[in-house]
Amino acid sequence: MRKLFRILFISASVSVLALSAGFSSAYAADDAKKADEAKATEAKPADAKPDAKAAEPKKEVTGKDLAFDRAMGNCLACHMIAGGELPGNIGPPLVGMAARFPDKAKLKAQIYDARVANPNTIMIPFGPMGILNDEQLDKVVDFISTL
Amino acid sequence: MKQSLTATAIALTLAFSAFSPAQAGPAEDLTAFQDHFKTAFKDVPFENFKDGAYALDEKLKAQWEEMEEFPPYEPDIDAGKKIWETAFKDGKTYADCMGDIKSIRTKYPYYDADKDTIMTAESALNDCKKAGDGEGFTDKEGKPLLNKGKIAQLMAYIAMENRGGKIAVATPEGKAVDWYEKGKTFYYAKRGQLNMSCADCHTSNAGKMIRADLLSPALGHVTHWPTYRSADGEITTLHNRFMGCNTMVRAASFKPQGDEYKALEYFLTYMSNGQEWNGPGSRK
């Protein structure tokens, strides 16, 4: 029974959320920690250094840091973003964002939960999944709108 | 149990409707599944999908072919041959319970009606070993080890002996359809903190880059196991890959040779009917 997923209907849409029973919180995901680095970070290769930030705690984390951090936004997995290396191309390049999203609230809504605009999207629902909190989202939005 | 199967079936219909008409049976699914990749990758000959991401990119393929000149899995094949030939405690061998080695790869996975389960090659080998040795494949601490180590080496030898056969899983019928549906649901269901399905990466976005990785099409996913991955530095089974991809989206992974992955293997293997068995494999 432990292994059965709970299937929740998020809306009447095609979006289905299946949470495994062993699922824990944000980055404390023990599974991911225990799992062999190479596998756990496959979509995020070698240079990921999760502890780099812990080593210099005084520097304030910027929106860019959050967007690029493989354990946080990891937006580069899918989007080309100026200044980021080895971007994926699953999503559109994030350019001309101020023009495309003159209303920051709309940009925030997209990043908070991309399923609202596209129920079957692969883009991670950063807000509802507890990956980025409100303050972090605002920082990311500020950074993205400079692109 | 029944209720939750119904729930997942409904969920599936919704999730799957983006790809194919609802109400399709396994045979219709198979056509739709393969047509998707044939259309998305018009220039890739059908028989090349067994090469995964390498079928999509000439440069990667050239690097891979160079690696295959001195196959990293060769020592594992040798080790596997020894395991195959070594008698169990009761004096019997794998050949006594598995039959002709050349018949193994194409036989599995299949639906075993008596046991109402999916028999995979690895689960059959583990059963043989249990019968002959009194215990299955285990690690040093005596815990089951079914995704790497000796069982993967044994499979490497068997796969090598079976290269060139074609995948031909019988169309699921009767109670086998429940297992098929379970695997299909698994494939299309969003899961984990990152909320992604197998299909998100390996159907909808196959051929795209996720960071520096080219996403392979699901067609051909099962052909080349066990696989030596340079990133792992060892040979591992298909279920080990499932575990890795589940972990990647921050979902809990399941036990190798547990019902979830056996169902997933059954579904994915049927979807790859017509592809060539070409294990053991190597990947970067």
Automatic annotation (TrEMBL), chain A:
Designated name of the protein: Sulfur oxidation c-type cytochrome SoxX
Q: Which UniProt keywords apply?
A: Heme, Iron, Metal-binding, Signal
Source organism superkingdom: Bacteria
This protein's species is: Thiothrix fructosivorans
Taking every annotated instance into account, which residue ranges of this chain make up the domain Cytochrome c? 58-147
- Which NCBIfam families does this UniProt record tie to the protein? thiosulf_SoxX
A Gene Ontology molecular function term for this protein is: metal ion binding
Annotated region (Disordered) at 39-60
The taxonomic lineage of its organism, from the top, reads:
Bacteria, Pseudomonadati, Pseudomonadota, Gammaproteobacteria, Thiotrichales
According to the record, the signal peptide region is: 1-28
From TrEMBL, chain B:
Q: Does the keyword Heme apply?
A: yes
Q: Which residues are recorded as binding substrate?
A: 241
Question: What SUPFAM superfamilies does this protein map onto?
Answer: Cytochrome c
UniProt name for this protein: SoxAX cytochrome complex subunit A
Domain Cytochrome c, by residue range, is 80-167, 182-275
The record describes its quaternary structure and partners as: Heterodimer of SoxA and SoxX.
What are this entry's molecular-function GO terms?
electron transfer activity; heme binding; metal ion binding; oxidoreductase activity, acting on a sulfur group of donors, cytochrome as acceptor; transferase activity
**Pfam families given for it?**
SoxA-TsdA_cyt-c
Required cofactors, per record? heme
Task: List the keywords (alphabetical).
Answer: Electron transport, Heme, Iron, Metal-binding, Periplasm, Signal, Transferase, Transport
Q: Where does heme c 1 bind?
A: 97, 128
The Gene Ontology biological process annotation of the record reads:
sulfur oxidation
Localization (cell): Periplasm
The note on cofactor binding and number reads: Binds 2 heme groups per subunit.
* Enzyme Commission no: 2.8.5.2
Q: Which reaction does it catalyse?
A: S-sulfanyl-L-cysteinyl-[SoxY protein] + thiosulfate + 2 Fe(III)-[cytochrome c] = S-(2-sulfodisulfanyl)-L-cysteinyl-[SoxY protein] + 2 Fe(II)-[cytochrome c] + 2 H(+); L-cysteinyl-[SoxY protein] + thiosulfate + 2 Fe(III)-[cytochrome c] = S-sulfosulfanyl-L-cysteinyl-[SoxY protein] + 2 Fe(II)-[cytochrome c] + 2 H(+)
Q: Does the keyword Ribosomal protein apply?
A: no
Q: Which domain of life is it from?
A: Bacteria
